[in-house]
Design brief:
Shape: elongated
GO molecular function: metal ion binding
Mean pLDDT: 77
Protein name: Heavy metal-associated isoprenylated plant protein 26 isoform X1
Number of strands: 6
Low-confidence stretches: 129-133
Structural class: alpha+beta
Keywords: Metal-binding
Radius of gyration: 26 Å
Number of helices: 5
CATH architecture of one domain: 2-Layer Sandwich
InterPro entries: HMA_dom, HMA_dom_sf
CATH class of one domain: Alpha Beta
Distance between the termini: 106 Å
Pfam families: HMA
Oligomer: single chain
């Protein structure tokens, strides 16, 4: 029996969780991919549909946007879209214009953005441009100086 006990110890599966992979948290990944036709849309959709952990895939050809919801790693989704489709893909760089205090500042405004969207100031490469997008105290003072609500404000006639 000593030989059989020895063999069972070698084949024993550990019961602790150190050997098991943890499940990724539920995430929504938004990716910008250029799509021209229905064929491109289908190709992009099929590239991520078969991934393990994907729950829902939405493609908006008008906005050039792919939205994947599921228990997935965002970098893996981006790599898979690039590899399977052969298209240039990047994480969705835009946010709604209502979220940004100054949506028309030079670093944030983008002509190529979909209507109602501007570049995300947190994802900008230039730190100076992201600071321009926030309001300074001087700007706040000048906008309230000509306010109708302020009785001591300047009046231009």
């Amino acid at each position: 029996m000593g030989c059989l006990d020895r063999a069972s110890e070698l084949c024993h599966w550990p019961h602790d969780s150190t050997g098991l992979k943890k499940r990724a948290p539920l995430e929504t990944v938004e990716i910008k991919v250029k799509m021209d036709c229905e064929g491109c849309e289908t190709k992009v959709r099929n590239s991520v549909t078969g991934m393990k952990g994907v729950i829902q895939v939405e493609v908006d050809r008008k906005l050039q946007k792919l939205t994947v919801t599921g228990y997935v790693d965002p970098d893996e989704v981006l790599h898979r879209v690039r590899y399977r489709t052969g298209k240039k893909a990047e994480f969705w760089p835009y946010v709604p214009a209502e979220v940004v205090p100054h949506p028309y500042s030079p670093g944030v405004y983008d002509k190529r953005a979909p209507p109602g969207y501007v570049r995300n100031p947190l994802q900008l490469e230039d730190p100076q441009a992201s600071s321009i997008a926030s309001a300074s105290s001087f700007e706040v003072k000048t906008t309230t100086a000509f306010s109708d609500d302020n009785p001591n404000a300047c009046v231009i006639m």
